[in-house]
Design brief:
Layout lengths: L5 E5 L3 H13 L3 E5 L2 H10 L4 E5 L7 H11 L5 E5 L4 H9 L4 E4 L4 H9 L8 E3 L2 E4 L2 E4 L4 E4 L2 E4 L2 H11 L5 E3 H9 L9 H12 L5 E4 L3 E4 L3
Parallel strand pairs: 1-2, 1-3, 3-4, 4-5
Antiparallel strand pairs: 6-7, 7-8, 8-9, 9-10, 11-13, 12-13
Helix pairs in contact: 6-7, 6-8
Length: 224
């Protein structure tokens, strides 16, 4: 079986480590484990990892603090938070802190693996250090700027998150509900056109932005 990716699981429950190791390795992933944030950072400095699965509630520390440490040292490394915390405000805070997705415990392993594959693999755009590149644009996640044929433009934090989400899914159509959940942490439509407004702002800031509108569905980043 071809190894698809290397995944670091940060969770203080051995049972979760065993479950994820067994299930994800059967699907071709390499799984590393850490029980706390300090161990996780040590592993990330020593090993090449494609994605982190992070529990939000750790016995020794706050998962949000661990997320902040990972974002500081590895700005472009995808982090999916897996947590039993269901409060919407906490989930929004988690996404704003840099997580690319939030999965509730108990989780379905098939769904979790599908979410992982959306963020890793050879068919995804380059994510090197703090940069994401696709379709002639280079997004700097740390400086919050995007560089392309029209020059370098500063972006707001939410615009960076939205653009990065779309750039990592070249050719895939992302629905408005999906974007509301992934970028804004909302499981419901708040009755506003916040997604459309944000896309409009991105288009104004980035000349020739390769994002297509799929009428009645959402948006698609087109690389070619």
């Amino acid at each position: 079986m071809v190894q698809v990716s290397s995944i670091l699981v940060v969770d203080d429950e051995p049972r979760i480590h065993a479950l994820l190791s067994r299930g994800l390795e059967q699907r071709g992933h390499r799984v590393l484990g850490a029980l706390d944030g300090a161990s996780a950072l040590t592993m990330l400095r020593a090993s090449s990892v494609d994605l982190v699965l992070l529990d939000l509630v750790l016995s020794a520390e706050n998962g949000l603090d661990v997320l902040a440490d990972i974002r500081r040292e590895h700005p472009a490394l995808p982090v999916i938070v897996v947590s039993g915390v269901t409060d919407v405000r906490v989930r929004v805070k988690t996404l704003e802190a840099g997580a690319i997705d939030v999965v509730a415990k108990p989780f379905d392993l098939v769904e979790l693996e599908a979410r992982i594959r959306r963020h890793v693999g050879a068919d995804h755009p380059l994510a090197d250090g703090r940069f994401v590149e696709a379709g002639g644009l280079r997004l700097d996640l740390s400086r919050r700027v995007v560089t392309g044929p029209g020059g370098t433009r500063p972006l707001a934090e939410r615009e960076v998150a939205l653009l990065a989400y779309l750039m990592r899914r070249v050719g895939d159509v992302s629905g408005r509900e999906e974007l509301l959940k992934a970028v804004w942490g909302l499981d419901f439509d708040p009755g506003t056109n916040v997604v459309d407004v944000s896309i409009r702002r991105l288009r104004l800031k980035v000349p020739g932005l390769p994002i297509e509108t799929v009428r009645g569905v959402g948006y698609c980043y087109v690389a070619g």
